[in-house]
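Sample pair:
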Amino acid sequence: MSKNGNSWQGFSLKKKRDVPEGLWRRCPKCEDMIFARSIEDNLEVCPECQHHFRLSASKRVELLCDEGSFEECLADYAPLDALEFTDSKIYADRLAEYQKATGQKDAAIIGKAHIKGRSVVLGVLDPHFMMGSMGSVVGEKIAAAAEMALESERPLITVSCSGGARMQEGVLSLTQMAKTSAAVARLKDAGGLFISVLADPTTGGVAASFAMLGDIIVAEPGALIGFAGPRTIWHTIKVELPEGFQRAEFLLEHGFVDCITPRRELRSELARLIDYCGK
């Protein structure tokens, strides 16, 4: 090797320039390192493999609703630590951390809006707030959204992205399955339209209640949908199940969802479905 100043051929002692944090993101599906801006410009979808990243509730509202049309309701509803629950952390402290990080009181946003000029009531779960889990506030908001849709004669649209019932609220969480299902039933009995959108993941008590009760069920590509995880099912029934049996594509093939719609087309698809149903 020949010496040249403070470096050797093929090797430099100069400090490498730091790469700005967040400039690149790794796709969990194809595992490629993708320029972050290209994912953001593609509505949080990997441009290489079309993996749909999780969206915050506020971002989902922004993408679906006509600009300036969303009127949030019950924004001040916040959960209580009625059980004084503690696991690895005190529940009240955990809530405070998520509220600070997301700027939301809990994991659901509901309100009246317009989607391509169509009047709707929209409810969205936020996976960034305790994995979109359904506690008393989330259940109350979804039930209220169904009641608003009934009273205003608007279609109800929900977007679920959830790990299920919130264990920190115990039976108070589990009762939300019945509450939301009953509210949706009243809407449907009155002739109202309920379109349920399933994002990745839609599992547990949310999948076992309102999320699978839509008149029309739309899934995003590759979404994990089901009650329990594959390992839990295997340990329970000791049967090897087909690969991908809880993914949107398998559920479409077996009649559990009505269509799979990429994120870029979802807004137009919802408007088309509302028109098709005459609502």
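The chain has two domains: 15-53, 55-276.
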